[in-house]
Design goal:
Blueprint lengths: L4 H7 L5 H16 L5 E3 L3 E3 L6 H21 L14 E3 L16 H16 L2 E2 L20 E2 L2 H9 L10 H10 L1 E3 L13 E9 L2 H15 L4 E7 L4 H14 L17 H5 L7 E4 L1 H11 L10 E4 L6 H11 L9 E6 L1 H10 L1 H8 L2 E4 L3 H4 L8 E4 L2 H11 L2 E4 L2 H10 L8
Parallel strand pairs: 2-3, 2-5, 3-4, 7-8, 7-9, 10-11, 10-13, 11-12, 13-14
Antiparallel strand pairs: 1-6
Bound molecules: FE3-S4 cluster (F3S).
Length: 426
């Protein structure tokens, strides 16, 4: 790793011990990657405020300075944490105070998170509290180097916005927030952004449900590589691309995709592959679509649904409105809960627009900050849940040992009001 004079000065303590620890971490991280240099970042999305028992212990031992040093800088020294050097935001974390008594989430975790928000907010961490920072104002421009965590956000930033970030971790984003630097490798480099696989869609993909299934197929087909998707696809919008990317990052480890003619770095199929010859296509046909649907529903046996979850990744205003419209004048089945996960800033919009009132009148809840997978919290006694999210259908059975059904928004709302799963592939 070659450090610039400025970076060497940071490492040697010119800006204090916390920045020195951060630069030391980045130097070790870059060397492990065989990376030649760091690049400048002005946009960090990480996690500082997520409560945990380990964090509670560290705060008890040495306050929030200690917790940040150990968890976000991999440093055991006593250091004082200065203001963030570059704009930094908090991604999703635990539940906030307004979830107390509403969500089964420990009161001490809510309290710890409140303390964390006060500490980090004073140092320049914007508490966006969502896995979709791009929905609430953090929108890097094309080509901008970033240091983001959260797989569904990383794939959106790289693919839809054309920004450049690898899928970073808690410590590397912590170090980036204090230095404005991150190892320059992978998705930061032109050669790390060209397509590697061509996916040819031979069955019509045009709804949110379709895009989620296509994403789940693509991740399984390409693993951690970079697909370019062509064929019988409509013009996807933010919500569909959000679902597509989250699903591809879940079944595989996709961090960047191209859709020629739609995503910014691929005006054509040839441009998506750059100097690389366009490979033979992998087909996505009705039989692959059926197989993905069966896979996503392979954890469901009982049709009695206790819990319906919408908003993974966190819902857009349009999705909240759609849910409200589907629930207007209806009531949830006794014994079935409905949660819609949203960015807190958008809940304010939903509140003012009257959507929250409609959803709550039906018996549903609109919740910010977190999600069941993140906080390992579902309504008490949940055995079977239904969702329109391929990501939650994939993770929640493994995390909480519950059954899952995957379907459309209408299937999920139907399950919420009848207590029964009646979805199917259409
Ligand atoms: Fe967001 Fe939780 Fe899904 S953090 S992407 S709602 S698993």
């Amino acid at each position: 790793m070659r450090l610039t004079d400025e970076e060497k000065a940071m490492r040697d303590g010119a800006e204090g011990p916390a920045v020195a620890a951060a630069m030391n971490l980045l130097e070790r991280y870059g060397a492990a990657l065989d990376c030649e240099r760091l690049c400048d970042v002005r946009n960090v999305a990480g996690t500082m405020t997520q409560p945990s028992p380990v964090k509670a212990r560290l705060v008890g031992e040495g306050g929030w300075n200690k917790a940040f040093a150990v968890i976000n800088l991999d440093c055991d020294d006593d250091v004082e944490i200065p203001d963030m050097r570059v704009p930094t935001c908090q991604l999703q974390h635990g539940f906030g105070a307004d979830a107390s008594g509403v969500v089964p989430y420990p009161a001490q975790m809510i309290e710890l998170q409140g303390d964390a928000e006060a500490f980090y907010g004073r140092r320049g961490v914007s508490i966006l509290a969502t896995c979709t920072p791009y929905q609430v104002g953090n929108i890097p421009v094309r080509g901008e180097h970033c240091a983001w965590m959260e797989s569904s956000a990383v794939i959106y930033a790289n693919s839809v916005l054309g920004a450049r970030t690898n899928c970073e971790g808690i410590a590397s984003t912590g170090a980036a927030s204090l230095t404005g630097k991150i190892p320059c490798w992978g998705n930061h480099l032109d050669q790390g952004r060209y397509g590697t696989h061509l996916i040819d869609v031979r069955t019509r993909v045009e709804t949110f449900f379709d895009w989620g299934m296509l994403g789940y197929f693509v991740g399984g087909a390409v693993g951690e590589e970079r697909p370019a998707v062509v064929g019988d696809i409509g013009r996807p919008d933010l919500v569909e691309l959000k679902h597509f990317g989250a699903a591809a990052a879940t079944s595989g480890g996709v961090e960047l995709y191209h859709i020629p003619g739609i995503t910014p770095e691929a005006p054509t199929v040839e441009a998506a592959f750059g100097p690389v010859p366009v490979p033979e296509a992998i087909g996505y046909r009705p039989e692959q679509r059926r197989a993905v649907y069966a896979d996503l529903n392979s954890q469901g046996t009982s049709a009695d649904v206790d819990f319906v979850l919408l908003g993974c990744p966190h819902a857009s205003v349009e999705q909240i409105w759609q849910a409200a419209r589907a629930l207007e004048g209806r009531r949830l089945s006794p014994g079935t809960e409905l949660w819609i996960m949203v960015p807190r800033a958008l809940k304010d919009v939903a509140d003012r627009s009257g959507y929250t009132e409609i959803i709550e009148r039906a018996g549903g809840k609109v919740l910010g900050d977190s999600c069941p997978a993140m906080s390992r919290a579902v309504p008490p006694g949940t055995r079977v849940f239904a969702t329109d999210s391929a990501k939650q259908a994939h993770y929640l059975p493994a995390i909480l040992g519950i059954e899952a059904w995957f379907g459309t928004l209408d299937d999920c709302i139907d399950a919420a009001v009848t207590g029964r799963w009646r979805g199917g592939l259409r």
